[in-house]
Amino acid sequence: MLTVAALYHFAPLPDPAALRAPLLALCEAEGVRGTIILAPEGVNGTIAGPRAGVDAVLAHLRGWPGCAGLAWKESAAAAMPFGRMKVRVKREIVTMGEPQVDPTAHVGRHVPPAEWNALIADPEVVVIDTRNAYEIAIGSFRGAIDPGTRSFREFPAWWRANADRFAGKRVAMFCTGGIRCEKSTSFLIGEGVPEVFHLQGGVLKYLEEVAEGDSLWDGACFVFDQRVSLTHGLAPGGHILCHACRRPLDPADRDRPEYEEGVCCHLCAGEYNDADRARFRERQRQVARGELFADQPAAR
């Protein structure tokens, strides 16, 4: 079994570009794959590899100034869930587009999984899923509000358009691993919401620690690797990914007439032109021949 580690940490990285090459070299030397994003505000990513290799990368990250407190959530995979190792430098480690938001200054109150059910059962608490619509489509907490956002960047506008609906309520928020809630709860505090809560460790930690019989979670949790989804006990959820539109599909969706592996599904049947489909078919042929990883884009 391989170790999968989902990690993030907000801390000032004055020159993230200078950190990229040594980190990438270490990951490749240790047989670790996945994606790590570096930005002036910190580090975010998911990696997989042998136990010793993952430990070496985590130790390297925690050795950076201000990153000693970096935490991560682990799961296991029978096969490597990533095709390659990518280390990218961006403006934000999770893109919200609100430069005044600073999770190192203030965030919502962290609520451990064992206390989450009691919180969200309170009728005076509004529960908001901060993930994107395609993630929510395969699973969420019962009664949670779906903002219908296609990307996290859309969340601030959604909140400002709907804030009056939640006046006087306490707000509980959750996401896959916790990082989006660091920003969304900080944002709400800046917008004047007095009581904001955050599921500590995100959905993944909840599914790991809360027994299915006690759970208020329905469905599976989308993850950003080739496992596609996880469910209670962090067991595989059985979903696949459409490599055209990157949306998760139930196993039964492969029987739909619109489905063509690597090329099309019922969700994106009307979204691409013939030239796009030709590129997708060529990519799928390259994947089948072992010349390309499934998570690599088709050449333009």
UniProtKB/TrEMBL annotation:
UniProt KW keywords: Oxidoreductase, tRNA processing
Lineage top rank: taxon: Bacteria
Domain Rhodanese: residue ranges: 121-215
One Pfam family per UniProt: Rhodanese
E.C. code: 1.14.-.-
Substrates-to-products reaction catalysed: uridine(34) in tRNA + AH2 + O2 = 5-hydroxyuridine(34) in tRNA + A + H2O
Leading EC class: oxidoreductase
PROSITE patterns to which the protein is assigned, alphabetical: RHODANESE_3
Any GO MF annotation of the entry: oxidoreductase activity, acting on paired donors, with incorporation or reduction of molecular oxygen
SUPFAM superfamilies recorded: Rhodanese/Cell cycle control phosphatase (SSF52821)
Gene Ontology biological process terms from the UniProt entry: tRNA modification
Summary of the function given for this chain in its UniProt record: Catalyzes oxygen-dependent 5-hydroxyuridine (ho5U) modification at position 34 in tRNAs.
UniProt record similarity statement: Belongs to the TrhO family.
Alphabetized HAMAP family for the sequence: TrhO
Protein name as catalogued: tRNA uridine(34) hydroxylase
Source species of the chain: Paracoccus sanguinis
Gene designation per UniProt: trhO
